[in-house]
Design goal:
The structure holds two protein chains of two kinds. Chain A is an alpha/beta fold. Helix content of chain A is about 40%, strand content about 20%. In chain A, helix 8 (about 290-300) links the parallel strand 11 (about 280-285) and strand 12 (about 305-310). In chain A, helix 3 (about 120-135) crosses helix 10, helix 6 packs antiparallel against helix 7 (about 250-275) and helix 7 packs parallel to helix 8. The longest helix of chain A is centred in the C-terminal third of the chain and has 27 residues, at about 250-275. Chain A is globular. Chain B is about 45% helix and about 25% strand. Chain B is built from three helices and three strands. In chain B, helix 1 (about 20-30) crosses helix 2. The termini of chain B are far apart. Classes of the chains: A alpha/beta, B alpha+beta. The interface of A and B includes residues 110 and 341 of A. Chain B: Pfam families: Pcc1 (PF09341).
């Protein structure tokens, strides 16, 4: 049932990694314009030196779901009757956290009189929300997060993957290096690396540069950065700074960021040249890094284009992007029957049929 | 299924206030299959002896070892707990009552 303004409303539930998000979005049935009514998030932050494990993350999502959902409904000021569909992240992501949120989404759907469910691809959620927030119509998309690293362009009803990581995601590389340095994971390990990197800049430590055509690799860079860190901490038996100047965590963070972001800019530029686009849209948690946005901006300007990025509300995993992408699919008639409302850890971006675009 | 292969069994009966809520729990929890081939589960909604209303959620677990049984039942209980909490706080009548209380 449309709300009092005759808009279509969707509730979105996200929990594929360590963020639990619930949001409500409204679409104008005439213009298609999206309005964010609420976007509530609660992040599971693990202690310094550790990552978030599936079991603990799922426990966090289960414990927080009701509180976050109530807050999202209250902030939006809507009742269940006004909501057209309930969207949840089908994948990709961590199995146990995904399933916890799917169980809650199913329960809401059934409690609220059998509201249609819409299972959403997490990556497509990022892309659609990025497009809606920035107004970028047909950009090359760089999707960079703790679990994914892809260069994507739209063609004929699919988001096609032009390049991707061959091993770990760029965000995973940064997160794990934050663990090596034992810096805080609050609010996010990548954010704290970015702040340290701002204090560096004097020394660029040698790290491998691993672009393979349209793809890239980060695990070797992480191994080398870990080696530099071990040298700095004096645990390898060698003296810190041997054969060069003394360096600190800020130099390591600076060097790591410059290297991996240069790689991302290179593969993005190649995709732009390939599809003849001058717009770049950066989505995913790493997309909130201002240095990455700056480097991408320099490249895009050289090509006579521009970079579109969003802030942490939309870059970092959230419920509203699931609501938005789900509602777009819902409006084309897409439904996820209850018996098919399972989750999947592997769900590639190009598996989704994008019926809502030309 | 051969009883020798799955010797460890546990049946849990969860009473719900209404058959509607028991049915919702059954549907919400029944979608995800047991991940381990060493565990089998059957879910049903049944009526107490003296009534016609199927307000009891009955889950029967069988497993190859007690360890597998414990892991599976613990996982089920965690999910069930989430379903119960969502029912308690987010059912439509509860939300309406909450709004009235807050003068909305």
């Amino acid at each position: 049932m449309p709300d009092k303004h005759n808009r279509r409303l969707a509730l979105g539930c996200e929990g594929s990694a360590n963020k639990l998000g619930v949001g409500v979005i409204a679409h104008d049935p005439v213009t298609g314009a999206a309005t964010v009514l609420s976007n509530i998030r609660d992040t599971f932050v693990s202690p310094p030196g550790t990552g978030f494990l599936p079991k603990d993350t799922a426990r966090h999502h289960r414990a927080c779901f009701v509180r976050v959902a109530l807050a999202a409904l209250a902030a939006a000021g809507v009742t269940p009757k006004e909501i057209d569909c309930i969207c949840f992240t089908k994948g990709p992501g961590m199995g146990a956290p995904l399933t916890s949120v799917a169980i809650a989404a199913r329960t809401l759907s059934l409690l609220w009189g059998g509201k249609p469910l819409v299972g959403v691809n997490h990556c497509v959620g990022h892309i659609e929300m990025g497009r809606a927030v920035t107004g970028a119509e047909n950009p090359v998309v760089l999707y960079v997060s703790g679990g994914n690293t892809q260069v994507i362009a739209y063609a004929e009803q699919r988001y096609r993957i032009f390049g991707e990581t061959l091993d770990i995601a760029v965000g995973n590389c940064l997160d794990r290096f934050a663990r090596t340095l034992r810096i805080s994971n609050d609010p996010a390990p990548g954010y704290n690396i970015e702040q340290l990197a701002k204090k560096g800049g004097g020394i660029l430590l040698d790290l491998p540069y691993a672009v393979k055509g349209m793809d890239c690799s980060f695990s070797g860079i992480l191994a080398k950065a870990d080696e530099w860190a071990a040298q700095m901490f004096g645990t390898t038996g060698r003296k810190a700074g041997e054969g060069g100047e003394k360096f600190g965590p800020e130099d390591l963070c600076f060097s790591l960021q410059e290297t991996v972001f240069a790689m991302l800019v290179e593969i993005t530029e190649r995709a732009m040249a390939h599809v003849g686009s001058s717009q770049v849209l950066i989505v995913g948690g790493v997309g909130s890094n201002e240095r990455l946005q700056e480097m991408m901006g320099l490249m895009a300007r050289d090509r006579g284009g521009s970079v579109y990025a969003t802030d942490e509300r939309f870059c970092i995993d959230n419920g509203i992007m699931i609501a938005h992408a789900g509602l777009l699919a819902y409006e084309t008639g897409f439904r996820t029957p209850l018996e098919e409302s399972t989750c999947t850890q592997r769900f590639r971006t190009d598996e989704v049929f994008v019926k809502w675009r030309n | 299924m051969a009883e020798q292969e799955f010797p460890c069994a546990l049946t849990v009966n969860v009473p719900f206030p209404t058959a509607r809520l028991a049915s919702i729990a059954l549907q919400a929890l029944g979608v995800d299959k047991e991940l381990s081939p060493l565990v089998r589960r059957t879910l049903s909604a049944v009526a107490p002896a003296d009534t016609q209303e199927n307000n009891i959620l009955r889950v029967k677990y069988v497993a190859t070892t007690n360890r597998m049984l414990r892991v599976a039942v613990n996982g089920f209980m965690e999910s069930l707990n989430l379903v119960l909490e969502v029912m308690e706080k987010l059912d439509e009548d509860v939300l309406t009552a909450g709004r009235k209380q807050n003068g909305g």
